[in-house]
Write a structure and sequence with these properties.
- The structure is a single chain.
- About 70% of the residues lie in helices and about 0% in strands.
- The protein is an all-alpha fold.
Length: about 70
């Protein structure tokens, strides 16, 4: 079970063009999004620590996402 709320996930799928969305589709996408967000966050924390900071900044998240591409 994901920590992300399913309603916004369902809206995203509909925004992509779906007429209807099953509950398990929203749950699966939320789970995948959470996994990816955790990978980015872990990498961003490494970058933050390397920079000698304690605060994760937007630039850390952006750089982490680029690294993980």
């Amino acid at each position: 079970m994901s920590d992300l709320p399913l309603s916004p996930i369902e809206r995203l799928i509909k925004k992509a063009g779906a007429d209807r969305v099953s509950g398990d589709a929203s749950e699966e996408l939320a789970s995948l999004m959470e996994e990816y967000a955790l990978r980015i966050s872990r990498e961003a924390v490494k970058l933050t620590n390397h920079a000698g900071r304690k605060t994760v900044k937007g630039k850390d998240i952006k750089m982490a996402a680029e690294i993980l591409k």
